[in-house]
Amino acid sequence: MRFLFLLILLAGTGIGVVYPWAMSNFSGHEIGSWRVYEQGRFKPVTVPLAARDAPVRVLVDLTARAERIVVSQQRTVLTLTAATGGRTVLASTLAFNHSDNPRQASPQLPDKIFRDEAGVIATVGPGAYIFTVGPGDADGIEMRAVDLVLRSGAGEVDSRARPVGFSLMAAGLIGLVLALRFGGGGGRPENPNSQPPPPRWGRGSN
User: Fold this and answer.
1) pLDDT number for residue 186
2) Cα(1)–Cα(149) distance, integer angstroms
């Protein structure tokens, strides 16, 4: 039973955590990366996109001097909009508070790189897209740099993956704990010396 619950826990981790993370960061191929904030200034960037790039996943990398970014649900660190032909095709707020494993910017610097997803542009018309990143209303974050990262042909994460994965993780973890607590070790091994010796005469003797 322990092995079964361990498999359920591992399956839930793969579906609820590994699969969404891999789809967000590695599906498709990277179109490019653009610096949108440096030395205290934000600047919009214009990126030409083609219809074959769809869908385009929009990611933002925040370099900051922090181990973790903790903001309340009502606060945002950055805002992002994407527009083409005078119309907005994507508007998003970014909090970065779910980035549990930030990347190290440099071995010589304490800065960390946090990544958040702004969304997916599902349908892409050929033309220039203007991406505008600006500050949110969260305070106390020492931002060093902000980079816009676009990935082409990015796969969509199934909306059912996280709920199903987390449910399997919970079931596997609870089952594993119960199995370890009440399953026991199968009892003590039987002592061969506790059996009476075979008779030396009569029936059953050697």
Assistant:
1) 47
2) 45
